[in-house]
Amino acid sequence: MGPIAHSGVGLLGWQITSSPKRKNIKTLLLFLFVSNLPDFDFFLLLIPATHGKHIHQTYTHNLMFVLIVAFLFSLFLPTTREKLGLVFAGLSHLLLDLFVVDPVQPVGFRLFYPFSRKLYNFGLFPYLERGDLKKMLSTHNIIALACEAIVFLLPVVFFYRKELAASFRKKEFWEI
Questions:
Q1: d(CA 22, CA 18)
Q2: Do you find a cis peptide bond into 106, omega within 30 degrees of 0?
Q3: pTM as predicted
């Protein structure tokens, strides 16, 4: 999945688990960051030593990475409910990525890496093409991102529109 789907689920986790007093830009950004963090491996591809190596969905798309990182970031949250919400936001990344068509060999990702190299993938949702700017702005990608928005982001915004609007209107929400 792309950042829209992962952010939609991160927003849902923040909305459900954050207490009204703790709903602020910092906690929202933390949930969005953790729900998108496994895709950080794309930035590793900018390092020349990684060129030609299969990095995406290896080191960051597994239970061990997500649980460790989510636990470490959860230390910034005061309540058990928020901490668990953040862990679930991180785990949601793996769950969503299980259902994306993966056209790149090897197909799938290693959920239990480094303990197992078995690949997992169910391939239902369209993938995002990566590479040059032309591919990233392709009609295929626009359709894939629209599907993500329709399925994962718009329902959250629609069903929680009053609560989200109330949070965003508060001056305290925007204080850093």
A1: 6
A2: yes
A3: 0.91
Q: Rounded to an integer, what distance in angstroms lies between the CA atom of residue 128 and that of residue 90?
A: 20
Categorise residue 131: left if φ over 0, alpha if ψ from -120 to 50, beta otherwise: left
Peptide bond preceding 114 in cis form (omega within 30 of 0): yes
43 class by beta-carbon count within 10 Å (0-12 exposed, 13-18 middle, 19+ buried)? exposed
Q: Whole-angstrom Cα distance, residue 157 to residue 164? A: 8
Q: Which amino acid is at 143?
A: I
Q: What is the tally of structural domains in the chain?
A: 1
DSSP character at residue 93: H
Rounded-to-integer distance, Cα 87 and Cα 135, Å: 33
Phi, psi of 173 (to 5 degrees): -60, -40
Give the range of the structural domain holding residue 38, as residue numbers without chain letter: 3-174
Written as one string, the DSSP assignment of 101-158 is ---SSSPSB-TTTTT----B----BPPPP-SSHHHHTSHHHHHHHHHHIIIIIHHHHH
Q: pLDDT (tens digit, 9 = 90+) per residue, 54-75?
A: 666 778 899 999 999 999 999 9
